[in-house]
TrEMBL record:
It comes from Massilia phyllostachyos. Belongs to the DegT/DnrJ/EryC1 family. This is DegT/DnrJ/EryC1/StrS family aminotransferase. The keyword Transferase applies. Keywords: Aminotransferase, Pyridoxal phosphate, Transferase. GO terms for molecular function: transaminase activity.
Amino acid sequence: MEPVADPVVPAPAPPPIYVTQPELPPLQDFVAALEQIWDSKFLTNGGQFHQQFEAALCEYLGVEHVSLFTNGTIALMTALQALGIGGEVVTTPYSFVATANALLWNGLQPVFADIDPATFNLDPARIEAAITPRTTAIMPVHCYGNPCDVERIEAIAKRHGLKVIYDAAHAFGVRQDGRSILRHGDLSVLSFHATKVFNTFEGGAIVCRDAAMKQHIDHLKNFGIADEVTVVAAGINGKMNEVSAACGLLQLKGVDAAIGKRRAVAAHYRRLLAGVPGVRCMPAPVHEANDGYFPILVGDDYPLGRDGLYQKLRDAGIHARRYFYPLISDFPMYQGIASAAPENLPQAAAAARQVLCLPIYPGLEPGAIDSIASLIKSS
């Protein structure tokens, strides 16, 4: 009888590499916090972890007041309500769709202005050109955590009597000239989603400057309730629960180390991708960045093109993202707006055609970065 050959068992495929992986607090610390919550029976509505987390964030970020939210989108919507914004709001087409959706949900008209191709942020000159008699506010985004030109935006707002609300979802811990970028504008809004540099599983916050505004925001996120028998505004339920607040409080202890590891990943990418034909990395930031994203621009002279490289990486288990593509202005609910016309947004359209965000997170090993860069170079 002929011996039967052992079947050839293919080697298991390596696990996929995503753009980001959420940081988690030490399990034993998180369990201890859960036990405290369990014993207290205080699950939400401003419990001990909520209060401690707000105070800790103010200290870490160097800001006066923070109001915690269940997520960044509800925080954006509430920020617009808190300032009584109406009419038109100048904003960017180059962002996550929640930026503009928050405007529509408040019955506001987004007016899209083009971006600066060097920073991917709103171009101040295009902001001013987009202002009409109906404009009441500007809502810029610190895209990828790169600070907007806050001085020029502030000057424009002052000149035209406008409010400024920064979508700072990407900008946790970002500092410019030694001070938090969140100190600018009338309000700044953070996201603590699991994909962000700093997360609470789900969560968000509004940063403001004075106690009266903080109290107003706190009323709005809690149904407008001022006390047991008093409702002072038509609020919603946007409160952060105690589990998320406890997670955030624990995460703060390790966030500086995590950002440091992200910077090392970004520096490694820049070294490996320098000089690759058709590929351009954003310049290393001059401000104190958080390296929440690592976008590259894939030009027409790259052999595969952007979408070909995207698919090549996907086929290798590397889940890069075309982030942000499509533009917000290309989605059906926005296409009918005059400012959404492609000819109005040439720089944003060019960025959306070329951008590819590579994986970046503290646990990304140097060998994985080497493999990603090798795949990009071999095309």
